[in-house]
Amino acid sequence: MSANSFGSRDTLHVGGESYDIYRLDAVPGSARLPYSLKILLENLLRTEDGANVTAEHIRALGDWDPGARPDQEIQFTPARVIMQDFTGVPCVVDLATMREAVRDLGGDPAKVNPLAPAELVIDHSVVVDLFGRPDAFERNVEIEYERNHERYKFLRWGQTALDEFRVVPPGTGIVHQANIENLARVTMVRNGVAYPDTCVGTDSHTTMQNGLGILGWGVGGIEAEAAMLGQPISMLIPRVVGFKLTGQLTPGTTATDLVLTITEMLREHGVVGKFVEFYGDGVASVPLANRATIGNMSPEFGSTAAMFPIDAETIRYMQLTGRSSDQTELVEAYAKEQGLWHDPAHEPVYSEYLELDLGQVVPSIAGPKRPQDRVALTEAKETWRHDVRGYVTDEVDETSDESFPASDAPAQHPNGQRPHRPVPVTLADGTQTQIDHGSVVIAAITSCTNTSNPSVMIGAALLAKNAVEKGLSRKPWVKTSLAPGSKVVTDYFERSGLTPYLDKLGFNLVGYGCTTCIGNSGPLPPEISQAVQDNDLAVVSVLSGNRNFEGRINPDVKMNYLASPPLVVAYALAGSMDTDITSEPLGTGADGQPVYLADIWPAPEEIQEVIDSSIASDMYTEAYADVFAGDERWRSLPTPTGNTFEWDQDSTYVRKPPYFDGMGVSPEPVTDITGARVLAKLGDSVTTDHISPAGAIKPDSPAGEYLKAHGVERKDFNSYGSRRGNHEVMIRGTFANIRLRNLLAPGTEGGVTRDFTQADDPKDAPITTIYDAAQNYSAQNTPLVVLGGKEYGSGSSRDWAAKGTRLLGVRAVITESYERIHRSNLIGMGVLPLQFPEGESADSLGLTGEETFSITGVTELNERIPDTVRVSTDTGVSFDAVVRIDTPGEADYYRNGGILPYVLRQLLHS
């Protein structure tokens, strides 16, 4: 029950029902607030308790100064939590471990339950092992169950043992698409109170729901666990960027082109840590699916959230996706009563302003390694020829006016092994072909970003139809795949009669889930992979996803491009990034004539006609009718019982982590850090993909050696993501990305460092794996630090980027700047995030990473948050590092050694 200092509690009558609400207009100044801050304001009104949330906090939000630097901490309590299986499994592992820890400290283990609704969608485990064949989906699902039965059995235990926890089984859809199509409430009702649906998730693309008017964002697994256990999320009242939309998209452009344009604009503007909110006359012309596409990419442009307010389009979409009339009536009535309904004539006050005329958007792709690097489609070939120079070792004429390749003459490889010529390949079916730099070896319609969007999915299918009718086929070296976000997509492909054309081009259904976009692309055909490796080819993937970071998509693929689903199909036809698909033929038709992209690109009217005739609410109702029950495979899995989980000591998937080992009822005082060594010295834009284990497990890696030692055959290694419930695997894969460049070991790539325990003189320290070095430091009780550059920890909200860092023995990370989620996660694991003084870096301070570090002033955190601490080295370098513990709540987590020990102690004391 709220303290209700503002007398805001009232009653709303809708369709014969009465609901308690907390009126926003009870707070002076609320009418001028941006939509997203109004949702935060309602959250504070409803959760006011006089301690964590006070009248002063509410008043501060009502008096929000849009131009001020954020400095007011508030406590945000999400209405629910959503998870995917890669990040969700460790959450359930931690809850199971907490139950044991509470029991061991004399408490009741049954008290450890989600206090807010929590839903987990198993969507990250399917791998594209098989493709381009009618049984690809069925076989991939079978293989998925074979690989993951231990994890799935564990989740079945969680589903039965934990209250307020539900699991959407495999083969159903992508978490964020399932969220917007079915799980999202938009307006919640609980204990007779109606309030805005807010949701945090263990995946950075939780922001896809922002398109439905739902405030929420991706958090680390540890932060999500705390939210599930009733802990509010500490945050500063953010700056809000108003993004005005005008006009309409022109024919030939897609939602993907729009979102890549917005991503480029917002990255350039700088929105890290801010809310973005779309408003203006153009909002009404943006379909809900396009809004979700934009919201989905919020992590790519760096904002915390990217909000669209509720309007008539929101209601139309809810009706289309099978929500009940009672629910849609409540959403509309509540939004209008609370001033949360979009009024294009009303312009809220914003901190900063941007504007885009939708008519200025042009067809685009993004790459070769960052989502914000938009390239106009007309310039794609030329830009690729320029960028490929950074990925090849062939000699090119740097003085030539030409781009790559420099000339038609054989440019010799520096070691003389191979001339720059296409490489012949004989495929498994006997087809003889050739590949070269720029060959598109993966073309994947994948990821929640676009597969939730009927216009681009129907567009891709119609383009496939037109291509087949012209007599075109995909190039033989292209691995094609179709992984929709929900079964509704294949339903409308079937209903419209378009499935056979996608199949004909090799875009057979491979699964419902995240595949290529998260690195589950599966292996390339062996003969293609061998040719790429033997000849060091810079081959390409084109995917309709949101992430194209280095090393993410496939270990053989150096350059990765984001594109709309229709363009994915087009590049599968062209087969090379060294083709200007806007002006050069995609191939030769059955009549012997060249076929151009313009010849097969579907008209907007054609796409709309198929949407109108093939998509209806009954498809969503049927697809989600029994969404938590699962198929026969899921229902037949054995289900463990009991308040606590019985750990299998032989399991290589699910093991009890050591987070609570030796923990007391009260925390020990915080101490300074002395005699620390540098585990890694890293550059700019190191992402959580570089830090956290992801993708395939290599046999000769520490994780691979561990699995072999535990009797796991190479074919059963599975991926790091699938083994997130086993900390032994995960710490061995932390900082082990094949593209990581540790400047402490110059000239190397991958998870290696120099081990200073193995030499008297640091300059003689041998190179070894990061895991082995960390073990040696641990044996000597030597604490570790990591040095980084700008935007450290950008990308996904991977909790293992922080968990692995802590379990390797890292006590502090010192960088030039952080992305929000990873900084928060480091604190959540008891790692101290520090920043170099403004304008300084490791290099400018002369730090090589060979030094021994001491960090003093940390003990002040026992009483307060100091602005800086003193960092000193044995070589005489010293500086004041900025302490990036930004709120009192974060300080409490750090004092307790992390968020989980803090929550556990709170449970015991309650």
TrEMBL record:
Transmembrane region(s): none
Entry-linked Gene3D superfamilies: 6.10.190.10, Aconitase, domain 3, Aconitase, domain 4
Any GO MF annotation of the entry: aconitate hydratase activity
Database matches in InterPro entries: AcnA_IRP_Swivel (IPR044137), Acnase/IPM_dHydase_lsu_aba_1/3 (IPR015931), Acoase/IPM_deHydtase_lsu_aba (IPR001030), Aconitase/3IPM_dehydase_swvl (IPR015928), Aconitase/IRP2 (IPR006249), Aconitase_4Fe-4S_BS (IPR018136), Aconitase_4Fe-4S_dom (IPR036008), AconitaseA/IPMdHydase_ssu_swvl (IPR000573)
Residue ranges occupied by any Aconitase/3-isopropylmalate dehydratase large subunit alpha/beta/alpha domain in the UniProt entry: 71-575
Catalyzed chemical reaction(s): citrate = D-threo-isocitrate
Name of this chain's protein: Aconitate hydratase
Organism in which the protein naturally occurs: Lipingzhangella rawalii
